[in-house]
């Protein structure tokens, strides 16, 4: 074989710090860290700033470890999807073994540091979230069932519980409701993305709901999950577990989310449709979660 025809992916270029950072999925990590921080701030007890910083650092590192292990296992899928083809592994900038060692090492460090510096309950939940994302979602569910996002959504719902447990050493009703909120938010959020990335998922052989059940079913499911999500979002205020700042944010934000979801649920895409409603829902869904958790933290810091 001529040297010029040798695959770059077979002989990866030396990875630099930007490739290792990309493995951690920084944009996803931002949402994880924010929801964990708000869960910590919403707790009824104040946490020492140094301990709090350490807890958030551990949560960020654990999220990054999950992202790295996810990309290590899914390098073959990432290689055939436009959205992910430039990631370090499919682009040939990193060796798979390096990604695996990085992910495992970061996982162990984050959990041990959380246990030793904060408390072992939050460390155990952090470990559970990493294992759930990597083993349950990435390895078991994603390539096997269109319910991958539904069940796998639990992985992204752990951060506020971890933040709360880091501050209090226990888990009560409010963090469980926050877990439920993110769990129910995940399907409409990801299915909106899957609707306009359907061809990519199909090419990669990932059984996302639009690929195996069709767009009509997916749109209906987005509407149904939005109703359940909105009810869970308002519940902390309705039950007296959060104040009016959060309640107002939850009501207004959920109403906007519902309008966008209704547009997605009740329309039929045309041949040359740019799928703007689906993209609008996906974009707003991220803002929605930031607003809700920001409202929760504001209640605790300003109005408590």
Automatic annotation (TrEMBL):
Pathway: Porphyrin-containing compound metabolism; heme O biosynthesis; heme O from protoheme: step 1/1. One of its GO terms (molecular function) is transferase activity. Keywords: Cell membrane, Heme biosynthesis, Membrane, Transferase, Transmembrane, Transmembrane helix. PROSITE patterns: UBIA. The chain crosses the membrane at residues 28-47, 53-73, 94-114, 120-140, 161-184, 222-239, 245-265, 281-298. Carbon 2 of the heme B porphyrin ring is defined according to the Fischer nomenclature. Converts heme B (protoheme IX) to heme O by substitution of the vinyl group on carbon 2 of heme B porphyrin ring with a hydroxyethyl farnesyl side group. This is Protoheme IX farnesyltransferase. It comes from Sphingomonas japonica.
